[in-house]
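Dear colleague,

Thank you for sharing your sequence with our group. We've completed the structure prediction you requested, and as agreed, I am returning the results in plain text so they can be pasted directly into your records. Please verify that the sequence below matches your submission; if there's any discrepancy, let me know and we will rerun it promptly.
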Amino acid sequence: MFLHPVTGAVGMRQPDGSHGPGGDAVFPLVRDLDSFVRFLEGVRRYMGACWDPYEGEDGVKAFLRAMAEVDAGALAEGAPGAEVWEHLFASITELGVDGY
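Please find the predicted structure tokens below.
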């Protein structure tokens, strides 16, 4: 994880080199630290609705709408960090205290 000292942008380096030569390139996750924290809070808030929604509830769409209000570019199609957020979401919810 990287936090840009001037802009506050949060990025990540892919050690396998898939995002740059030798894996040295940093790709963006979210526009700033506040957005990063709000995304993590969103994962916690929507994990139950995504994995086990109530009838008529679409947790995934609700999560994506809420996160688009925080940083629309982070989960946009083709965004470098969009796939990473999918993996972060899955790892956080699958390893939760409730057995997700």
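Summary note from our side: DSSP finds three helices and three strands in the chain.

Kind regards,
the structure core
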